[in-house]
Design a protein that fits this description.
Keywords: Oxidoreductase. This protein is of the alpha+beta class and 403 residues long. It has helices spanning 3-6, 10-14, 20-44, 49-57, 76-89, 91-100, 103-106, 112-118, 249-266, 282-315, 321-349, 359-370, 378-389, and strands at residues 126-139, 142-152, 160-169, 172-173, 184-190, 195-197, 211-221, 225-226. Strands 1, 2, 3, 4, 5, 6, 7 and 8 form an 8-stranded mixed beta sheet that branches. Helix 5 (76-89) packs antiparallel against helix 6 and helix 5 (76-89) packs across helix 9. Mean pLDDT is 93; it is low at 1-13.
Length: 403
Amino acid sequence: MTISQTTPTAAETERETLTAGTILARAEAAAPRLRELSEEIERGRRLPEEAVRLVRGTGVFRIGMREEWGGPELTFSEQTRVIEALSYGDSAAGWCAMIGMDTWIYAGYLDETVVKEMLADADAITAGLIFPVGRADRVPGGYRVTGRWPFGSGITHADWVVGGCVVHSDGVPEPGEDGAPVNWRLMLVRREEVETVDTWHTHGLAGSGSTDYRVTDHFVPEDRTFDFTTPRDSSPFSAPDAFLGNVPGVPLGVARAALDHVRELAAHRVERATDTPWSDSYRVQTAIGEAEMQLSAARYAVYGSLDELWARLRDGVEATPDQQVAAALARLNAFRTARSIVQRLSDLVGTASIYRTSPLDRWLRDLHTMCQHILAQEQIAQSAGAHLIGGTPQAPFPLGLKG
C-alpha cells in the first residue's frame, strides 16, 4: 500500500474542506500502512517521513480547528475515533497525532495576528509540555525564556513547540490568579527555535520521539504566550481540559488491534496438550469473551462521557461533581483496561508473545509506558474522589478544574 492509495498529500488536503467522516475514513485507510511501518517507527525512535506524511494527509492535525477558521471542528467523540483509528495502525503514530492536533486548541487562546500566521498551514503540528518547568522573565514586549522540558512527543516533526513556564518579575516568581502560588504561562515558538536533547531511550512507545528540549535566554513576544484562563471564546474547545478529550483513543485503538490480532490467531491454532482447536477451547473462548466485554465497557464509558461533556460545554450548563469527573475517570479506565486486556492476551498466546517479532510484545510495552503518563496515574482517581466528597484534588487540571 502506498501513501497515494490511502490519503492525499497535505497540499491536496489544504484545498478542500474536510468532514469528520472523511478524516475518519482516511485514518482507517492509513492504519494498515502504519502497521507495516511499526518496526521502522520503533527502531528509529521517531515517526519516519513517510509516516508523518501519511498521518498529516488524513487531516487529523486540523480536527480541532474552529469552523469560523475554515476547519472541520470535530467534537471530542469524533476526535477520539480518529485517534483510535490511527492507533489501531501504530501506537506511536496515534500518540503523536493526539499530541500534534493541539495546535488549534492552543490557537483559541492566542492573539488574532498569531492565529492568522498559524492559519497559513491548516495541518500545522504542535509538540511540547504544558506544565511549568521553565522560567519566563518579563521584559519589554514579552519574556526571556530559559528551560528544559521533558516529553516533547512528536517534536522531531513538529512545526510549533510549547513550553510551560513560571513567570518572574524582577527575579521573583509572580503569583497567579485566584490565589495560585505562581503565574503559569505557556510559550509558543517555532520548532527551529528549540534544541532537542536525545533522551528518549525507553521500554515502550519508542517511536513517539518524546525527547527533552530546551531554550536559553530566548525572547518570546507577548502575543505568542497564553494561559488557560483567558480563552478567545466560550466554545467547548475553550474548556481547560479540552485538549485531553481525544487522549483515550490511543489505548482503545491499541487494545482493539491486539484483540483482532489474537482472534485471527485463534482461527488457526490448537491446544498442544489436547489437540483442541482454539476456537473450541474453553479457556480461549473465555479470555476472548471477557476481553471484549472489558473493552466494550471501557469504550462506551469514554464515548458516553465525551458526548455528555461536549453537550454540556456547548450549552453552557454547569456541571455537577459527578459530571465533572466522568470523562477523566473514563480516560483513566481506558488506559488501565487496555493494558490489562493486552497483558491477558499475551498470557493467552504464551511464549510466542515475548519475541520482538510479535506485535503483542510492542503493544504491551507501549501500553505500559502510556500508563506512566500523569493522565493514567492514581492521582486522577484521588482528585476525582476528592472533588466528589469536598476534599482537595491533587490534580485538578486534568479534571477540567481551574484550581
